[in-house]
């Protein structure tokens, strides 16, 4: 029996050869028309293969060019970012690395306008203040009306649940009412979970759209990019506010669970 390392190496070699020779049509004539083929080749098939091979070689050269292009683009981008940071700031160590990674992330996600705001904060107030303002924007700064209303609804929810669980005259009635409250709270919790799932799906869909647009190299006019960026920023803020509101509501649901367990244990024991 061969060792796991040897087996893994042979499997990796097979997959690499399939990726190179089959997917990119870089196989030799023997590998294309050899004894492992399902049928013997004829002159017309071999002639067709030669024409296909010429096109495949061009495609492989283009693939290698794009691969090298991405490599050198990343190197040049990193060099320019590091030069800008050293020339315009006194940052060093982890702070410089943090700013560098933030710049790369914004460029990768095509969020130029947000990058300009972040770098303006870095130059004016430093990294810590810029990161603090960024977290505030990501949390949905200004959504206090929504949060206040969510808290009010949550307090009323807990109060109503506690009142319902306390009106039973006997232990049996109290236990029955507690079970009903727990069932209702379970349904409400599922609604909250579905809200988290929908928000996560929207985020994934937005990222997938951005990746497709970058992969296809879709050209955008400046006004189109600015409009899309503003729409994305608005959706991000609304999404952040909704997430915070869901967390607040989930906290009150947890309080109801704890009260229910306490009331149920008091009624049963």
Helical segment tally? Answer: 9
Q: What's the overall average pLDDT, rounded?
A: 76
Q: Overall 3D geometry? A: extended
Instruction: Give the uncertain stretches in residue-range form.
Output: 35-40
How many discrete domains?
3
Quaternary organization: single chain
Number of strands: 0
Strand residue percentage = under 5%
Give the C-alpha Rg. Answer: 30 Å
Structural category: mainly alpha
Share of residues in helices: over 70%
The major β-sheet equals: none
Distance between the termini: 63 Å
- Note the run of SSEs as H and E: HHHHHHHHH
Question: How would you describe this protein?
Answer:
The protein has three domains: about 70 residues, no CATH class; about 50 residues, no CATH class; about 120 residues. The protein is built from nine helices and no strands. With about 270 residues, it is an all-alpha fold. The longest helix is centred in the last third of the chain and has 47 residues.
């Amino acid at each position: 029996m061969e060792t796991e390392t040897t087996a893994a190496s042979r499997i990796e070699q097979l997959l690499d050869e399939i990726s190179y020779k089959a997917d990119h049509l870089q196989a030799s004539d023997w590998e294309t028309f050899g004894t492992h083929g399902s049928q013997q080749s004829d002159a017309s098939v071999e002639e067709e293969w030669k024409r296909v091979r010429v096109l495949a070689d061009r495609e492989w050269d283009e693939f290698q060019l794009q691969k090298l292009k991405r490599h050198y683009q990343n190197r040049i981008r990193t060099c320019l970012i590091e030069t800008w940071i050293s020339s315009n700031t006194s940052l060093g160590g982890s702070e410089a690395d943090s700013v560098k990674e933030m710049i790369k992330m914004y460029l990768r996600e095509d969020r130029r306008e947000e990058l300009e705001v972040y770098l303006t904060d870095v130059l004016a107030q430093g990294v810590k203040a810029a990161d603090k303002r960024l977290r505030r924007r990501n949390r949905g700064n200004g959504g206090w009306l929504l949060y206040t209303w969510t808290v009010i609804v949550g307090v009323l929810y807990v109060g109503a649940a506690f009142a319902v669980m306390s009106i039973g005259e006997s232990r049996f009635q109290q236990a029955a009412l507690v079970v009903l409250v727990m069932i209702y709270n379970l349904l409400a919790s599922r609604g909250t979970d579905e809200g988290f799932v929908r928000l996560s799906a929207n985020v994934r869909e937005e990222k997938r759209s951005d990746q497709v647009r970058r992969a296809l190299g879709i050209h955008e006019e400046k006004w189109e990019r600015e409009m899309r960026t503003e729409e994305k920023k608005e959706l991000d803020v609304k999404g952040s506010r909704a997430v915070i509101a869901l967390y607040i509501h989930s906290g009150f649901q947890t309080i109801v669970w704890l009260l229910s367990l306490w009331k149920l244990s008091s009624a049963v024991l």
